[in-house]
Each structure stands twice: as structure tokens, then as C-alpha cells.
């Protein structure tokens, strides 16, 4: 939720841009004001299957909103946020990016499990994007939004790839693991990737009431995190104790449940951090506005107080204006860096994705060459989908890191002339689940007992006839022990050859299905990556172009003011007094902006 002082400061700055007739500076502040109007602070609750994520959300909000049972697993993300009354809305989105359409359906809260659990909606066959739950809870009133996600199954699962793609839009991530065992390799792998996309991470060990050795598990988990270089604190909790304590109002049980520290983390490290980011961003935006306003006033003030300096000042300002105007030209260094960087990035990301998926394809084809697809298909498809999702997720993480690096590089080139605040890049996508048809074993010829007998008799008849006719020249009958044995051998060989042919045909068809699936995944994910990078290019281009326009306008106003002061000597003292007063007001506003950003830096 936006801090009142930040909103007030932006509103004052907006009034200043109107009073001093600088509408070009209002655009940035209006965007800042709109950003402050969004109170949501998203926290993703992630973890493997059946670790207690849904029960953790229920315990945090003290309400049974997320379905929980031994045979229930979450299939659809569930957002829990503040509302004046309890409601449940199912959201189904279709279409990519800005062209997406949203279908919203309200359902009773007691029917939520029918739509978001694997039992009621296996594999999310209803194609729901998410479920949104509103509750009148004080914890959520601060703008906190809890997102109960499906079990990730590691970085390589389809759910893991989908969750990974949502991380850049989250303000924090909470990894949930129960106290039955220490962190697994997939959990640590997921954590390392998550830290690179959303550094604000916390860890929760659940079900401490069921496992007496939970302290040892926490100790082992802390060691794993240290060795993996993951800076995150572990919060051991018992959701069952928390819910029971809430019903009985037993303060001792509430303390024993461990939820007080977890709630403190959410409020102090997540919600408060979002407020700090708002303060820093507002302080910088307002300070840039004040600097632009004061530049014009100072130029005129110098001209009024010292006319001899005005000529030199006007010349200097003209040179500065020429430099800033160059920033808006296509030949400017930051434009070249941006265009070349995006082109290189698209090529690199596409190559990286194709290389990863080709490696999966080669390994899959080798596995199919070494065995009969009909015998290993279930295990193979599970491995194959996991590998594809892992490749897609790794590619998405790299895309995000490279895009942010490019934004910093462009900012450095632009910063040769002015201090730059980078835009908040929101990168989405990266999951193929639901958009690529699952890998299915091609339907081949059956080879049952009847077919084996027919093929064996056909081969045996040929062998018996061939050897029997040859043996008649030696005085034997057509049917003799040698011809019968030859018929049996030829029949068995024909059955083996037919079985081998069918296996090879299944292998070829299965390999073809693997290649088609890889091609479709490459097409879908490649399109998402290119769309994301093009969107990033537009955001960076618009951001720096707007900044260049602001600087150019400010310097042009300064030049005009200095030149005007040279031509007019009337009411000089009155104008000097007015300019000093206006500068004091602008400086006071700038000081408030510095104090706002400085208060965050000192905490």
C-alpha cells in the first residue's frame, strides 16, 4: 500500500509542473502516481507437492480458503488478497501479452476445491489461469497478496517452469518444505534459480508438530543454504498449531507455532521493502523533476544578476542542448547499443533454447533406440517432459538476466550525459504447459498370439518346403526330421524378424513424435522470448527517449530564459526576488525528495 507521504510528494510535484508550465515533466510523475495506486505486494508460496503450502496460507489468513487434504494437491494458482467480504473468482485468460482476454466467473467458496485441486480439476483440464480469493483480514489490508502455487516438482517440471516464469513479477518468494527430510537437490536448484529472478526469498519448514526431529532438519537445511550461497532465513512453523491457537485464543500456542516471526518477515521484509522501493523511486523521480525546473530558473537568475555571464551561459546551454538532442537521434550511442543488444540477445536466446532442446532430443532418441518404446513409454514421457521444462526454465532465467544486463548497459551509455533511473522491467512467459500437446505413443501394429502364429507358419512353411524338396534328391521324403526342424527354425526366425521390424517402426515413429514435440516447444517458447525482448526494447526506447525529451526541453527553456534576460533590463530586481523565491520552493521540494530516498538508504 502506498505510503501517504509518497503520494503527497508526487501530487505536489505534479502541481509544480502545471504551475511552471512544464507538461513534459508530468508524464513521468503520472506514471509514478499510477504505480503508487497499485497496493499489491505479491508473495509466491512455492514448494514440492504435499509440503503444506495450502495449509500455510490458511494459517496465515486464519481461514480455510485453500483446499487441504491427504489426497488433494493444488493444480491452479490461488491468489488470496484483501477484500471487504469473502469471495472466490475463477480467471481464465486467453491470448498472448497485451492481447489477452480474461473471463471471470464467481463461485461459492466451498466449491473452490472442485476447480483448483488435482482431484477436482486434474491437470487443470479446465484451463484456468488462477483463482482469486478475497478476505477481510488485517494481514492482507497492507496490500499483501499470497499466491498458493502448484507443487513445482523441481525446476524441471511443467509446474516448476510455470512458477519460474512468474517470479520476476513477484515481490518475494517463500519456499515451503516440511520437516520430514532435509532439502532435496531439486529444491536447492529451484532456490538458486529463484534468487536470480527475485532476491527477496524466505524459507519455511512446516509440520514441526508432526516431526520431533525438526530442529535437526532445520540445522541441515541451513547448512545446505550456506553451501549453495543462498542468503535466506528459515522459519520453522506448525500450521495446525496456528489454526488451533487462533480458535482457542491460546497465546502460548501461537508463539509455539512459529508464525509470529514469519508474519514479521512478511510485514517488515516484504511489505516494508515494497514501501522502501516506492519511496526511493518517488524520491528520484521528484528530484529529477525539481532539477529540471530549477535549471531554467537558475539560468535566468544568473542572466539577471550578471548580464555579462549571460552570453557565455547561453552558449554553454546551446552546446548542452545540442548534446541532449543527439541522444534522440538514431545514431546516438544508447540507441545503437539498444538495437544491437536486442538483436544479439534474440539470436543468443534462440540459439540457447534450440541447443538445449536439441540436446534433450538427442538424448531422448538415444533412449528410444536402446529399448522398445512400448515398454518404457510411461517413464520416458515423464523424463522427456521434465527435461523439456527444465530447458525452457533455464532459458527463461538466462533471458531475464541478459535483459536486465542490457538495460544496465544502455543506462551506462546514456548516463555519460545524465543520471539515469532504469525502468522496472517485467518479464513474463517461459512455460509451455498447456500450449503444446503432450507426447503420445503413436498407434502401431499389434503383434498378438494370432499374428505370431500366422507369421510363424508362413515362415515355417517356406523353410519346410525348401529343405524338404532339397532332401528328396537324397532319397528322403518331403516331410522328414530335417525339413521339419528347418521349418521350425525358419518360422521362429520370421517371428523374430517381424518383432524386430515392429520395434524399429515404433522407435522411428516415437522419434518422429519427439522431434515434432521439440519443434512445437521451440516455436512456442521462441515466440514468447522474442515478444518479451521486443517489449523490453520498446520499454527501454520509450523510457530513454522520454528522458532525452525532458532534458532537451529543460535546456531549451534555460536558453530562452537566458536570452530573454539579456534583452530586458526592466524590473530586474523584482524578477530576481521572484526567481529566488521560486527556487527556494523548488529546492524545498527537492530536499523532501532527498530526505525520502535518504531515509530508505539509511535503514
Architecture overview:
By secondary structure, the protein is an alpha/beta fold. It has a domain at 39-257: Rossmann fold (3-Layer(aba) Sandwich), CATH 3.40.50.300. It has helices spanning 4-19, 23-36, 53-61, 113-116, 138-141, 158-166, 185-197, 214-228, 239-248, 251-257, 259-305, 307-327, 333-369, 373-414, 449-472, 481-567, 572-602, and strands at residues 41-47, 78-82, 87-94, 101-106, 130-135, 144-148, 172-178, 201-206, 234-236. The chain has a 9-stranded mixed β-sheet with strand order 4-3-5-2-6-1-7-8-9, sandwiched between helices. α1 packs antiparallel against α2 (23-36). The protein is elongated, with a radius of gyration of 34 Å. 39% of the residues are buried. The model is unreliable at 430-434 (pLDDT under 50).
Helix/sheet category: alpha/beta
Contiguous runs where pLDDT drops below 50 for at least 5 residues: 430-434
How many alpha or pi helices? 17
Task: Tell me what the CATH architecture of the domain at 39-257 is.
Answer: 3-Layer(aba) Sandwich
Amino acid at each position: 500500500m502506498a505510503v501517504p507521504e509518497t503520494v503527497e510528494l508526487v501530487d505536489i510535484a505534479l502541481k509544480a509542473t502545471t504551475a511552471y508550465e512544464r507538461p513534459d515533466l508530468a508524464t513521468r510523475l503520472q506514471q509514478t502516481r499510477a504505480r503508487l495506486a497499485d497496493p499489491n505486494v505479491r508473495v509466491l508460496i512455492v514448494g514440492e507437492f504435499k509440503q503444506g503450502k495450502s495449509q500455510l496460507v490458511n494459517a496465515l489468513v486464519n481461514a480455510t480458503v485453500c483446499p487441504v487434504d491427504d489426497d488433494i494437491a493444488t493444480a491452479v494458482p490461488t491468489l488470496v488478497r484483501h477484500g471487504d467480504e469473502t469471495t472466490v473468482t475463477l480467471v481464465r485468460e486467453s491470448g498472448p501479452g497485451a492481447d489477452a482476454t480474461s473471463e471471470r466467473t464467481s463461485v461459492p467458496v466451498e466449491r473452490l476445491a472442485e476447480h483448483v485441486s488435482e482431484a477436482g480439476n486434474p491437470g487443470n483440464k479446465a484451463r484456468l489461469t488462477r483463482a482469486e480469493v478475497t478476505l477481510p483480514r488485517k494481514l492482507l489490508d497492507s496490500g499483501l497478496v499470497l499466491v498458493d502455487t502448484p507443487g513445482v516438482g523441481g525446476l524441471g517440471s511443467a509446474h516448476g517452469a510455470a512458477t519460474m516464469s512468474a517470479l520476476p513479477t513477484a515481490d518475494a518468494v517463500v519456499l515451503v518444505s516440511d520437516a520430514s527430510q532435509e532439502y532435496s537437490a531439486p529444491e536447492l536448484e529451484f532456490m538458486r534459480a529463484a534468487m536470480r529472478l527475485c532476491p527477496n526469498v524466505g524459507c519455511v519448514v512446516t509440520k514441526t508438530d508432526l516431526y520431533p526431529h525438526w530442529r535437526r532438519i532445520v540445522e541441515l537445511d541451513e547448512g545446505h543454504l550456506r553451501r549453495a550461497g543462498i542468503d535466506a532465513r528459515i522459519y520453522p512453523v506448525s500450521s495446525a498449531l496456528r489454526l488451533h491457537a487462533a480458535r482457542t485464543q491460546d497465546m502460548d500456542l501461537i508463539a509455539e507455532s512459529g508464525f509470529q516471526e514469519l508474519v514479521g518477515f512478511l510485514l517488515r521484509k516484504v511489505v516494508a521493502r515494497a514501501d522502501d522501493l516506492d519511496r526511493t523511486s518517488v524520491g528520484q523521480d521528484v528530484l529529477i523533476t525539481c532539477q529540471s525546473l530549477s535549471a531554467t530558473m537558475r539560468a535566468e537568475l544568473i542572466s539577471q544578476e550578471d548580464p555579462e555571464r549571460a552570453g557565455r551561459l547561453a552558449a554553454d546551454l546551446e552546446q548542452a542542448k545540442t548534446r541532449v538532442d543527439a541522444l534522440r537521434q538514431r545514431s546516438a550511442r544508447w540507441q545503437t547499443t539498444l538495437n544491437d543488444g536486442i538483436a544479439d540477445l534474440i539470436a543468443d536466446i534462440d540459439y540457447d533454447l534450440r541447443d538445449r532442446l536439441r540436446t534433450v532430443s538427442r538424448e531422448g532418441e538415444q533412449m528410444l533406440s536402446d529399448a522398445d518404446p512400448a515398454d518404457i513409454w510411461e517413464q520416458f514421457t515423464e523424463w522427456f517432459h521434465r527435461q523439456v521444462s527444465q530447458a525452457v526454465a533455464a532459458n527463461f532465467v538466462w533471458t531475464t538476466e541478459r535483459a536486465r544486463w542490457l538495460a544496465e548497459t544502455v543506462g551506462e551509455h546514456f548516463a555519460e550525459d545524465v543520471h539515469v533511473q532504469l525502468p522496472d522491467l517485467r518479464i513474463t512467459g517461459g512455460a509451455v504447459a498447456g500450449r503444446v500437446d503432450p507426447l503420445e505413443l503413436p498407434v502401431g501394429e499389434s503383434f498378438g498370439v494370432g499374428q505370431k502364429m500366422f507369421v510363424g507358419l508362413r515362415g515355417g512353411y517356406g523353410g519346410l518346403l525348401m529343405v524338404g524338396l532339397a532332401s528328396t534328391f537324397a532319397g528322403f521324403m518331403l516331410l522328414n526330421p530335417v525339413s521339419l526342424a528347418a521349418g521350425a527354425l525358419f518360422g521362429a526366425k520370421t517371428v523374430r524378424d517381424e518383432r524386430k521390424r515392429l520395434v524399429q517402426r515404433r522407435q522411428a515413429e516415437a522419434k518422429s513424435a519427439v522431434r515434432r514435440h521439440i519443434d512445437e516447444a521451440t516455436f512456442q517458447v521462441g515466440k514468447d522470448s522474442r515478444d518479451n525482448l521486443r517489449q523490453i526494447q520498446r520499454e527501454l526506447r520509450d523510457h530513454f527517449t522520454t528522458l532525452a525529451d525532458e532534458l532537451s526541453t529543460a535546456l531549451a527553456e534555460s536558453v530562452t530564459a537566458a536570452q530573454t534576460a539579456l534583452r530586458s533590463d526592466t524590473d530586474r530586481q523584482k524578477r530576481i526576488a521572484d526567481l529566488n523565491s521560486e527556487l527556494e520552493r523548488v529546492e524545498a521540494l527537492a530536499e523532501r525528495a532527498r530526505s525520502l530516498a535518504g531515509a530508505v538508504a539509511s535503514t
